[in-house]
TrEMBL record:
The chain crosses the membrane at residues 70-90. It comes from the Bacteria. The lineage of its organism: Bacteria, Pseudomonadati, Pseudomonadota, Gammaproteobacteria, Pseudomonadales. Keywords: Coiled coil, Membrane, Signal, Transmembrane, Transmembrane helix. Residues 1-24 form the signal peptide. This is Uncharacterized protein. Residues 93-132 form a coiled coil.
Length: 252
């Protein structure tokens, strides 16, 4: 409105159609309107400021409520996260305890199995070692007994040879042919099974004494016949000569 009046006044002055009084009145009215407009503008500005302050306060309250809502939401999220983490930790702990128990049972079972296997191996090794030791000792003892038996046999053979030599010496030292035949018969009867190597010598000695006139008693004749029958066939020639000499000789 003010701009429109100012524009009209300017046009009138330009064309010289506006009186000076009108111009003065117009200026006074313009000043009044200007003051009134200034006051109105100040009031409007204050109202705008108050309105802006109210809006700012509303925004602040809204932002405060929004921040509180966000804080509550974040707190709820943190609570849920903590709850989930707690449940996860609890679940993991239970799984860990279960796995630990399972692992412990497996280790116990493996330890028992290994202990049993080790015990079986030790028992087996002990049995084998015991068997080896027993076999070794048995072999050594058997070898020792065999050696002792051989020594005893050699000693026995030596003693037998000495006894046989002494008996043969006594047999040859008899002045009587009959007593010599008795000694030869006793030697032959005692040793023809154990010392077969002496059989030919004793048979030849008996033939020699029979040729010299020696005689057997009836019992000695029977015993001599039994011994001749029991001798091996390889002595057949000698046994037949003895039989012939016995049949030719007399019995006393």
């Amino acid at each position: 409105m003010k701009k429109l009046r100012t524009l009209t006044l300017v046009l009138a002055l330009a064309w010289g159609i506006v009186p000076s009084g009108v111009i003065a009145a117009t200026d006074s009215a313009s000043e009044v309107e200007s003051v009134a407009a200034t006051d109105a503008s100040s009031i409007d500005r204050e109202r705008e400021i108050e309105l802006l302050r109210a809006q700012l306060e509303v925004r602040r309250e809204h932002q405060t409520d929004l921040l509180q809502t966000v804080y509550w939401a974040l707190g709820g999220v943190f609570f849920l996260v903590s709850l989930l983490v707690g449940f996860g930790w609890f679940g993991n702990f239970k799984v860990y305890e279960r796995d630990k128990q399972s692992l412990k049972e497996e280790m116990d079972a493996a330890a028992k199995a290994n202990a049993k296997e080790l015990h079986d191996d030790i028992q087996k090794a002990y049995g084998e070692l015991k068997e080896q030791i027993y076999q070794s000792v048995e072999n050594k003892v058997e070898a020792r007994f065999k050696e002792v038996d051989e020594r005893i046999k050699r000693i026995g053979d030596r003693v037998l040879q000495l006894e046989l030599a002494r008996a043969k010496e006594e047999m040859r030292s008899n002045a009587s042919d009959n007593m010599a035949l008795t000694s030869a018969l006793n030697l032959l009867g005692n040793y023809y099974k154990t010392v077969e190597s002496e059989v030919p010598e004793l048979l030849k000695f008996i033939i020699e004494k029979l040729d010299k006139g020696g005689k057997f008693t009836a019992n000695e004749h029977t015993r001599m016949s039994e011994i001749l029958d029991d001798l091996p066939p390889r002595y057949f020639t000698l046994t037949e000569r003895v039989r012939k000499k016995m049949n030719d000789s007399e019995i006393f």
